[in-house]
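Subgroup meeting minutes
Present: P.N., E.W., G.H.
Scribe: E.W.

1. P.N. recapped why we're keeping a running log of single-chain structure predictions: easier to compare across weeks, and new members can see raw inputs and outputs side by side.
2. G.H. added today's entry (162 aa).
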Amino acid sequence: MSFKLRILEKKDLTQVYQLMNDEFNMSYWFREPYLSFIELEQYYEKQIVNDHQRHFAIEYDGHFAGIVELVDIDNIHRHAEIQIIVDKDFRGLKLAQKAFNKCIEYGFGTINLQKIYLYVDIENKPAIKVYKKMGFNTEGTLKKHYFVNGKYHDVYFMSLFK
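Output recorded in log:
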């Protein structure tokens, strides 16, 4: 079974569209599952020339399995947020951990980041366990920071240093 991280291409937008309109996925990204394909195409066209973001497709055995990205890249202070979605058909294969590792390696080694951070719902115990195992530490708790599925959620702000 082969795992690969590659640059997100326009041909991936159909699968990204499905991920971004899935209620389960978006609840962990603290976003509404409401995105038109036209909006996604326009966003993609803007982002391919944006120096403050890097978007990667997760590939497993030649199939699109999800996305991992560095966003809000700050080239002065050398930090960025990391985000990931693994398609439900590919969960349980440790692809999130592999993709995170590759993306972190890229962030620290290629674009010389000093810090990579993330936000995670304090109720998402499996993700928190993985992030801690990967070396992320909790810097703080943001109270009632996101409104999802009719209620406010507390989140941990976690980070990893080079």
